[in-house]
Design a protein that fits this description.
With 137 residues, this protein is mainly alpha-helical. The protein folds into 2 domains: 78 residues, no CATH class; 43 residues. It contains 5 helices and no strands. Helix 4 packs antiparallel against helix 5. The N and C termini lie far apart (48 Å). The N terminus is likely disordered.
Length: 137
């Protein structure tokens, strides 16, 4: 006998029922449990139960949050080139010595941070590759 489908149990197919998906999206976007419940048309206690008792629901919230973060990082990266150009312009062409000095400091500080981040990423990738090679061998 097939179990009944409800907002709590969901269908026997992959993916969440619409109410759970709506709540997961709201939670991933930073809404409170109360706000997510209202957006999904569910009770606050129900959403708390989903978070606590349904690993697939909690995973979906994390997946959606990661996707949103990735999109935001992409938008930031897109603007970084313009920001670097602006700092470079200010270093060279600003009338105020204070502005030129501030832009130069920002370029140097941010350049060092970016270099450190890239080097750290490369080191982690190398460690992961070494670990993967050892596990395979």
């Amino acid at each position: 006998m097939a179990r009944p489908v409800s907002a709590f149990t969901g269908p026997d197919v992959e993916g969440l029922p619409p109410k759970q998906e709506a709540a997961a999206l709201a939670l991933a976007a930073g809404r409170t449990v109360m706000e997510a419940a209202k957006a999904a048309g569910a009770g606050e206690r129900t959403v708390k139960t989903w978070l606590h008792d349904l690993p697939a629901f909690a995973r979906r919230v994390a997946e959606l949050r990661a996707e949103m973060t990735s999109r935001a990082v992409g938008r930031l990266a897109d603007g970084m080139a313009d920001a670097a150009d602006t700092l470079g312009f200010l270093c060279r062409k600003a009338r105020s010595e204070t502005v030129r000095l501030g832009a130069a400091r920002a370029l140097l500080e941010l350049g060092v941070r970016v270099r450190e981040a890239v080097e750290l990423e490369e080191r982690v990738a190398a460690l992961e590759a070494t670990k993967g090679a050892r596990a395979a061998g």
